[in-house]
Amino acid sequence: MKSRWTLLAAGAVISLSLAGCGASGDAGSSSEGDGSIEVQTGLAVDSKLLGTLKEVTNSFQQANPNVKINLVPSTTTYEKDMKVRLASGNVPDIWWTHGWSRDRYSKFLLPLQNEAWAANFNPALSDAMKDDAGAFYALPIDTDIAGIIYNKDVLDKAGVNIADIKTWDDFDSAAAAVKAQGITPITVSGKANGPAGNLTDWIAPGAFSKDELAQLKKGTFVGDKYKTVLDLVAKWRDQGYFNPDYASAATTDMDHALAQGQAAFIFSQNNRVNNALQYSPNAHLGYMPIPSLTGGSGYLVGGEMNAYGISKTSAHAEDAKKFLAYLAEPANESKLAQSAGSAPGLTNATPNMGALQASYDQWMTQAKTTLVPYFDRVYLPNGMWNTVVTTTDSVITKQSSVDAALGQVESDFKSLYGQGK
Fold it and tell me: Is residue 355 domain-shared with residue 390, that is, in the same domain?
C-alpha cells in the first residue's frame, strides 16, 4: 500500500500526554523547541496499538527521565502532511513510515542496520525494507501478514467451512450463502480513504503472472489483467455483496459489523480484528488466504506495516535511537506486535497474536502459505495509491464503469511511472 488509512480516525489531531513527558503538539508542528522527541505515530487516537505504544513509552520515560517523548496521533491526511513537512524541512524526529521506509523515505532517514537489535531483523521483511546494500531505515514493530478476515460465527450460521474456500468461485458461493441469511457478505468503508483500495490491493497479486508482474515493474501496464480485478469488484457490487451503507460507513462501522456478526468478510490488515474485539470480545474471528485469479495457490499479503524511522536531521538522534532500542526489546516488541494483531518484526520476540494466533499457525506455520508484498508498493509507481482507491470506489458506487476506471488507472500509471524515471 501506499498508506493504510484503515488505521486512521477523522479529526485525531491531538497529542497524548505521557507520564513525565511535559510536551504536546499536533501533526503539523515540531517539538524541537521544548526539547522533546516528536514521534508521528501514524495511528488513530483510539487504536489499540497506540494505547500499547503509550504504555511502553511511559515505561521508557520512567527509566529515562531526561528524555521527553511526544507521541502524536495521526490525522486522516497523514501522508500529505508528511510530504509537506519533509519538503519544508519541518521534519519529526521519528515517524511512521507506512510501508515506505526504503522507497520513499530512505533519503530522509538514518540507516539502522548497525543497531544492536538489527541482528534480529525478520528476513521476511527484507524484500520490502532493505536496499541492495542491505541497509534498512526503520524499526519494524510487526511483520504485516494479512488475508481475508472473516467472522466464523457468521460462516457457521451460513454453513460455510473456511477450509473449502480455495477459489473465487468458492468465495462467491460462501458470500451467497451469507447473504441468504440476511447478513452482509463484505463490509467496506467508503467514507475512509483506503478500504476500497484494499480490495484491489488484495486481489491484484493473484491476477498477474510472474512475467506480467515484471512488465509492471518495468513500466508496462498490463491492462487486461487489472481489468479482471475491477470486474470481480463490479460482480460483487451487482450481486449485492457490499454493505448498503458503503458510502457513509466509517472504519469503526466495519469493526462493529464484523464483531457483531453483521458481516462475514473484511479485506484489511489484522488491526481491524483487534479493534473489532474491543466491541465484542467473544466474537470468533480469523483470516484466510486470498484466492488467485490465475488458478494458482492462495496467498497472503504483507510486508512493512508499523515501522518507525529516525530523521537524519534530528537534534535528538541518539536519544531517538535509545527509544527505538527500547521498543525493540523482545518483551516490548512482542507486546506491540500483539496489539497490532501481527507477528513481531524481530525474530527474538515471541509471536502472541491472541485471537489470530490460530490463523497464523494454520496458514504460516503449518501450510507455509506464500506471503507476497502489497501490490501497489512493488508493482505500481509512487503516487498510485490514491488512484487505486478512487477508481475502485467509483466501480463500487457505479460512478464509473470498469472500462472508465481502468482507463484512469492506466493513464495515471503511465504518467507517474514517467515522473519516476
Answer: no
Report long-range pairs for 231-236 (Cβ below 8 Å, ≥24 apart). Answer: 231/402, 232/168, 232/203, 232/293, 233/199, 233/200, 233/203, 233/392, 233/395, 233/396, 234/395, 234/402, 235/172, 236/175, 236/185, 236/186
Pairing status of strand 184-186 against strand 299-304: unpaired
Cell of 343: 507477528
* Exposure on the CB side of residue 185, measured as CA atoms within 13 A: 20
Give pLDDT tens digits for 280-310: 999 999 999 999 999 899 999 988 889 999 9
| Residues contacting residue 291 through CB under 8 Å, at least 6 positions apart | 165, 166, 167, 168, 170, 171, 206, 298
Rounded distance between C-alpha atoms, residue 392 and residue 181, angstroms = 27
The letter for the amino acid at 160 is V
Q: Do 360 and 384 have their domain in common?
A: no
Residue holding cell 513500466?
A: 219
Q: Is 245 helix (H, G, I), strand (E, B) or coil?
A: coil
CATH number of the CATH domain containing 50: 3.40.190.10
Specify whether the CB–CB gap between 319 and 36 falls below 8 A. Answer: no
Q: Which class for 322: exposed (0-12), middle (13-18), buried (19 or more C-beta within 10 A)?
A: middle
Q: How much is the pLDDT for 34?
A: 63
CA distance 77 to 223: 30
**Count of domains in the chain?**
2
Residue 68 and residue 197 in one domain? no
pLDDT of residue 23: 33
Q: Scanning the structure block, which residue is given the C-alpha cell 519533509? A: 86
Q: Is the pTM of this model over 0.85?
A: no
Q: Return the exposure string of 152-168: e unless at least 16 CB atoms fall within 10 Å of the residue's CB, then b.
A: ebbbeebebebeebeeb
Range(s) of the domain holding residue 353: 5-145+303-366
The model's pLDDT over 310-322, given as tens digits with 9 standing for 90+, comes to 999 999 999 999 9
Q: Is 95 exposed, middle or buried (0-12, 13-18, 19+ CB in 10 A)?
A: buried
Number of CB atoms found within 10 A of residue 401's CB: 13
* Together in a domain, 176 and 163: yes
User: How far apart are the C-alpha atoms of 94 and 109, rounded to whole Å?
Assistant: 9
